[in-house]
Amino acid sequence: MMDANALGESLYGFVRELYPICRSITGPGLRETLAAIGRHVPLALCEVPSGTRVFDWEVPNEWSIREAWIRDGSGRTVVDFRDHNLRVVNYSTPVRARMSLADLKPHLHTIPERLDWIPYRTSYYRDSWGFCLTQRELDALPDGSYEVCIDSTLGPGSLTLGECHLPGQSRDEVLIYTHACHPSLCNDNLSALAVATWLAARLAGRGDKRLGHRFVFGPATIGSITWLAHNEDRVANLRHGLVLASLGDAGGFTYKRSRRGDTATDRAAEYVIARRGGRIEDFSPYGYDERQFCSPGFDLAVGRLTRTPNGRYPEYHTSADDLSFVSPRALAESLAACEEILDVLEENVCYVNQNPKCEPRLGPRGLFRTTGGTSPGEFEHALLWVLNQSDGTRDLLSIAARSGLDFSLIARAARALVDVDLLRPAPALGPR
Ligand code: ZN
Do the domain assignments include residue 432? Predict the structure, then answer.
């Protein structure tokens, strides 16, 4: 087993590997990223052609970019896509023109209050072009004539989704969705791409799961909409789900509840995240792909785990969300929290006490200390709680909450009681 330091370094190494790639919601950068994930986990790729109708949306034309620059009157390059892929507005239409600074300025984007940061801007779903630069660079541009070039292609192609399916013993599944469309931005969302990839790889090595796991990697918004449009028949099996994003910064965890707010996913995540000192927030229809999974026509048990949420840190969607903004330690801790949530979901079953009339005798079954007169220890307490509450309607998480005992202790007691046939899983496998 890798220790947390080595694990953190390996996650960080993957973030570093993916950082230079110019991703977008379609195109070669997205495919290159999915290919990198596919070197760690079995990944099925799906290409959905441009123009495909997906609910109220349409898969857009595919975008690719080769070069983009601005040269001043003397031929000196003043902005170059080659030194940072945030420098071109993502999805810019091609352009080749000469123009005055005044005419160029509406196409230049900066962050006025952060003199040395480059903003991240996109022009999805509208035809436009632009460059991003620092305020200091903009202020230094003299009046005069400029030559601009964006050598991009925007035309029919496809949108790529990557999916890693790890079947379980039951048909019930956990969906993990991670957006893979942002260019060189580490926290949003290379951090979660690394965590989700490692999560899948580690789960794949443990083939004895009750629940299946379905990891989907695709662009934000249009990716989850497209996936849902193509997988409506699978939705009934999605018992649980998490959208993972922004898991590498130094902030504490934030779990955002599903629209329903009280699903087994919510209770498992809240249990784990609250114990790690994180915040719990209610659902809101703003954020990442949870908006689609929690739209009323699906209303899935999908919550969202981040550290600092989108838009609540100054580095968000700027060049300052770089390799120095995320740490191996935060990544390793995020992976551990995700694994803990999945473990709780896996074990959180409703059981039925097979000897419900008065207490069964635990001593002869080897489960209770044989010397009388002393008060029972924690494990004995857990046995009594599980037996008393297991009427087929209460899951182990609710028993942990009511007893005040650790979920892991309650789960261990349940396993011990199953082993001596005092407990059986309720016919309806688990809570939704
Ligand atoms: Zn973002």
Answer: no
